[in-house]
Amino acid sequence: MRFRHVRMLLLISLITVGAAWISIPGDDLDIAGFKSDHPVRQGLDLQGGLQVTLEARPPGGGSVDSGTLDGTRDTLERRVNGLGVSEPLIQTRGDNQIVVELPGVEDPEQAVEVLRETALLEIINTNGSPLAPGTVVQTTLGDTSASAAATPAVAADGSVQAPPDPNVPTPDPSSPVYETIVSGSDLSDSFVTSDPMTGQPLVAFELKGSASETFYEFTRDHIGQPMSIVVDKQVISSPNIAAAISSSGTIDGMTVIEAEQLATQLKAGALGVPLDVVSSRTVGPSLGADSIDRSLIAGIVGLATVAAFMILYYRLPGVLSVVALLIYTAITFALFRLIPVTLTLPGIAGFILSIGMAVDANVLIFARMKEELRSGRSLRDAVEAGFDHAWPSIRDSNVSTMITCVILYWFGQFTGATIITGFALTLFVGVAVSLFSAITVTRTLLRLLVDLGAIRNGWLLGLERSETSAPVTT
Asked: If 0-12 CB within 10 Å is exposed, 13-18 middle and 19+ buried, where does residue 440 land?
């Protein structure tokens, strides 16, 4: 029995050392760049930045379906990544809004202009050469952005050339110029379907107007060759042409997830939906630094207060609970970096609240253990009974809290309220880890002390001297 407990202690020690190494800030003892690849992600309210709420308003007052809104969000993600912003948060809210949070953004005005641009979708002729996703290309379709500030240039033949869009990736000037076959304005719809024979996922799309004839002639003459689908001058897919395509066609060779992503990207480009800025809020970095300092002080004070109470009231089990609490803190923070979790002030509040819930589990266990000792049971039996009888209450309360966290997270995702999602996610992770720390860590430590015969005095277990006159038996 003792050997099994020692093995469990070794496992807990390994987990603790690994979690502590991940949790310690800085790049000290960084092995193979693991820590630098999993940084502490700070939200908008901690490091400052820009929060923008955009509303999709199609021409003619039409409505926006969920697929189009998701595709627009994906396009915004690519554009924001081009700004070099670390840990941006972009999510839909309601039926027609997108909330964008850009921590650490240095030029808010430029960021807003990038976000307002309408996605430019093109299907291009690659001249028989497949282009890898992510490749930035030059095409024959000029910039039609309404917000481009540059003045159009007049070529030698008298034609007007649209200025380059400053909000899309800049291709290599020496790279070839690819012919645009159809653009987003030529698509009427796109959706995911499946091959009736093989069941493989397909992306179906429909063309409108004269574009169907143009596309039919191109695909008829290039069967077996690749074409590339480009959004904002960046290749997102390069399928092969299997047959001539007229007013509608399909794209294959993808997984279900890839098909869904491509369909939403095509739909967003087909709509060309303009985005209006509903609200814009800038948070200064000084406010974020002050928030971090206050949060650290609150966390330290709260942890110290809880530790003092547990030690004074439960004595030796209280000391063990504090050790388990420190292990819990290291594991939880390490998970925040690994998942990863973007820390915000509400998220930190959820983490601190989960510390109290972790202690609550220990309180239930120790209170039951004291009752068993008062009834005359041996220490070993009292320890086992304390955990066994307290477990149903701990399980039910924590599971109900985790279910509530899931509901809050879903609600926050739907409404775009990042305050709610951050709180729900950190509380969920904290509660899940608290089950491990209370039931596994504290129990293992107590069992080892019992096996070693280190507890002989009932006072060390939180009993008053008047409650026991004989040594505690194991």
From this structure: middle
